[in-house]
Structures are given as structure tokens and as C-alpha cells.
Amino acid sequence: MSLLTVRDLSIEFGTERAPLVAVHGVDLTIDEGEVLGLVGESGSGKSLTSRAIMRLIAHPGRITSGDIDVGGQRVLELSRRELREFRRSDVGMIVQDPSSSLNPVFRIGAQLSSTLRTNLGHDRSTARALAVEMLDRVGIPRPDHVYLAYPHELSGGMRQRVMIALATAGHPRLLLADEPTTALDVLTQKQILLLLDEMRREREMAMLLVSHDFGVIAQMCDRVAVMYGGRIVETGPVRDIYDDPQHPYTRLLLRSVPELDPGVRARVDQHDGPSSELGPLREACVFVDRCPHARAECASHSMELRWIDDRRQTACPFETTVAQ
Amino acid sequence: MLRVENLTKTFPIRGDTGRDGPDVLVAVDDVSFDLHDGEILGLAGGSGSGKTTLARCIVRLEQSDSGRVTLGDVNVLAARGRERRALHRRIQMVFQDPYASLNPRLTVGTALAEVATVHDRLDGADVDSYVRRLLDRVRLAPGIADRRPRELSGGQRQRVAIARALAAAPDVLIADEAVSALDVSVQAQLLDLFLELRADAGLSMVFVGHQLAVLAAVADRVAVMQNGRIVETGETAAMFRDPHHEYTRALLDAHPHADPRRRFAIGPDTE
Questions:
Q1: For A258, which residue in chain B has the nearest alpha carbon?
Q2: ipTM greater than 0.95, yes or no?
Q3: Residue range B34-43, pLDDT digits in tens
């Protein structure tokens, strides 16, 4: 039984008469304790998909179809009150820029302990002690000192640790991590990823990790879903996809990842301009303009995912691997 | 081409840091290096290592405390007036966020023409053809000249920022995390472009970045900075094969390999 099930999720912007489709027909599942990666470039719809799970799509964006189920709760049908309860205890969220989620005028400790008081019903002194303990748990040196600090006094890595403490304070079963390390240098990135990995084991949380970096996904995830132009184009175990990517976009993505081999240049496509612009729904493959294997049939392809073995799906109906 | 000798830059620390010790931060600590003609030198290090401050000191966006920078036979840090203006042309910088360095109101063509005019680079050529040539060098279509920054993709904007640097016909280009904010496919395209520019125009470059994997693709040599000091310098391939300093090793070990068999995390159910 999956902890998270997303069925046929679509998100649109624009007006109802002239909709701009940002996400279309996305299906996802995450089992208890599992880590799913969602990888894609900017504009692919990966962050929107993750935000939709928390129902955080702001006007003029809207969810136009789909069903989201987290541990038996149908998220899109929750009342405001139920939604508040759901956000505070069932799901935690970490975003790229912690300063957008931390209030700049309150001390770290005040924010953490007020979360603990409202979410877990602790009294003031218990909340304080627990907050310091949590700061210590996420690897913050001198937690009692940081408890009294303001967000701007901390480095990016420390702020992200505070965010992890906040996001996991309510003991959620699912953690949504949206580009949690993109703003950090590689050393801090590694520490934060290791911390996330530790925390999710300790708390037995499932995690959705959203990233543009296949390397980050490969370090952390069991399975990955590759998104492009608002669609999932390929999904399966990270290892299988790394070894034998099926969709032409996945291959492009993997070729572009910078590796530590001096002088080896990534092979690049010469595509220029925005990778995927928002527009009305097209009955064509979203990758057709950029695909080296594009053919006439692609213009009328519905992008239905097909199974290629018992764990992997791809949206490309053609055998394109050999032609590479 | 460019020589940096014993460069030091400190910042005063404001407020109570809760730490003991002096109230200055030594951001760049007695740094020396040479950038050879036509070379791409990678400057690596984590946040706070001083790499960006060092780059900014070289172009005099920060005033260094002591040390010497020479370009050819010109003393960069002491140059004034005419000589200083000439240096502004000869050393150009490309930043991480082209939004912050491009005027949102100017069309790309106007912005490029402005730089060319200020530095008197037109040489009788008409502005339009100069702009077209610049756009062509960064592999952008001529039509881009009529657009404004917000109408462009992130990759296109960064190409414009590079064209703007090239408009001054510099001898040295300093790129500060110039590809860090871009999608990997766009990043790979831009790294290609930097290599092409070096091949075509013999441009020398200092390429600042925290990802050794990015530097691997472009840099001939890499200098690794930690706490304001260069702790290791070497030819890129040799250094990556056999890093001597533990900090270099740490940077290499922190690279997230796309191969899930090469994990630094304990990872989920690794067989």
C-alpha cells in the first residue's frame, strides 16, 4: 500500500478559456519509507507537482484534475481546517531558499518552539528544551546560542538545517524536499544530503526529492521520475535509468551532468531558448522540438507511459536507444 | 598574462560573533598565482573560501589591503585615470546572475552597443554589424538584439552577459559561478562556448566555481581555496587523479555522482 498516490494530476495557469498547461496527467506513488526522486529542468513542472501535494498552488495556478492521496487522506477534498492539520502533522516541506520560509524578524528558537507548541501541544519550557535538542540533532553547533539567533545571522547550510528541524518537528510520514541543496556549495550539499538521509531513516519517513541534478537524485533515491514539459517522460529504479535510459530526454539529461573527468566535455544538444514554454495542451510529444529522433508520428503522440519491464515506464513509443 | 602576488583582503566583522579572536575576517590571505596567455584557470572552493572576493579584488570591485596584480606590465591596483579605464576594458567579469548585471530596460542590442561605444571598440564598423558579430560569437540569433533580458531564457541571458563582456574586447575574462544557476543541459552548452571563445580569440579566463565537476570540463589548471588561502594548485587532470590537500579531496568526495553505485550517502537499500 502506497503512502502517497498522485493520479492524473494537471495544473494550469492562464485563464480558463486560454489555459497554459504546466503539469499534465502526472501519476506518482511513494511507499512508506521510500525515497522517490523527481528530476527535470526549470519549467518542467517538478516543483509544482511537489507543491500540489501540500495544496500550495497559488492563484492564478490551479489544479484542474487529479487525485492526491496521502495515507488515506484525499488532499484535494480536505476542508480548510483539515488541510491545516494535514500540513502540520502529515507532511513536511523543505525548499531551496530557507530564508523564504523563515521569518526574518523572529529568532530561530521562537519559530521552532512556537511550531512545537502549536503542533505538538508542548508547554513553553518543554518546547524550548525540545527545540534546542532538535537544533542539536540536525547538527547545529552551540544550539543554545543559535536558538537566540536571527535567520540572517546563519549561513545557508545552517539555515537549511533549521528548516529540516522545522519540517520534521511534527513527525511527518512524508517529507517533500524541493531543491534542498541547490543554493549550497558541494561540501554543504553533501552534509545536508547525509543529514536528510539520516533523518528519514531515523524517523521512518518517506521522501519526495525534487532536483534538477541527477547526481543528487542518484545519491539519495530508490526510484526516479523524469519530468519534461509538465509530463513524466520516464520512471523506474535509479540504477536502471542510469544504466539504460529509454527516453531521449533522459539520455540528454544524463549526458549533460557534469562529471569529474577532466577534459571530457558533456555532449550537448544545440537547442537554444526556453526548454518548454507554457502553452495550451498539445496532442504531441512535449520533447518533439528538441528530440534528435523526432519523426512524423511524434506530432500526434499522446505521451501515454508504457511499461517496458515490471518496474520501468517510458513515454517514448519508439526504439531510440540503438540509433544513438 | 595576469599575475597576482601576495594579495590580501580583510573585512571588519560587525557585531558580536560569539567567537573569540580578532574582529577582522581575512577573506583573501596572501594569495599569489599566474594566469598564462590563453589559459583557463579554475578557482575552486566552498562558500566563504574567498574565491569570489579574490575575483572581485582583481577587477577592483573590492579594494584589497595589500598585494600586487599586474596585467602584462600594467600595475592593476595602482592604475588611475586613463590607464584604469583601459583596464576596465581589458579585464571583464561575468557573474552568476545575469539579471543583476543586465539593465532590464535596454534591449540586448542597445546594451551591447553601449559597451562597445564606451570602450571605443567600433573602429568605424557600424553598430548593428558589431552587435550581430557579438551575438554570433556567443551563438545567439541576430533577432535577440531587439529583445529585453526578461524575454530571454536563463541560458540566453547568460550568453548575452558574456557577449556584453566580449563587447569590450577584453584580454582576460573572469567568470564568477557563471554557469552555477543554469540547468545542466544549458550549463554544458555554455561550458562549450567558453572553450570555443578561448580557441577562437585566445581569451584567458579565471573560472570561479564550487563544483570541481564543472571546472573539470573547462579548466587547464585549478587552484583550490580554503579560508582565503590557495591550498593546492595543479594541472586539472593530475590534481583530480591525485589530490594532495585534504580539502581538495573533500571537494572531490562531495561530488554527487550520477552513477547510483558511487554514493556517499548510505543510500536506500544499496545491495
A1: B213
A2: no
A3: 999 999 999 9
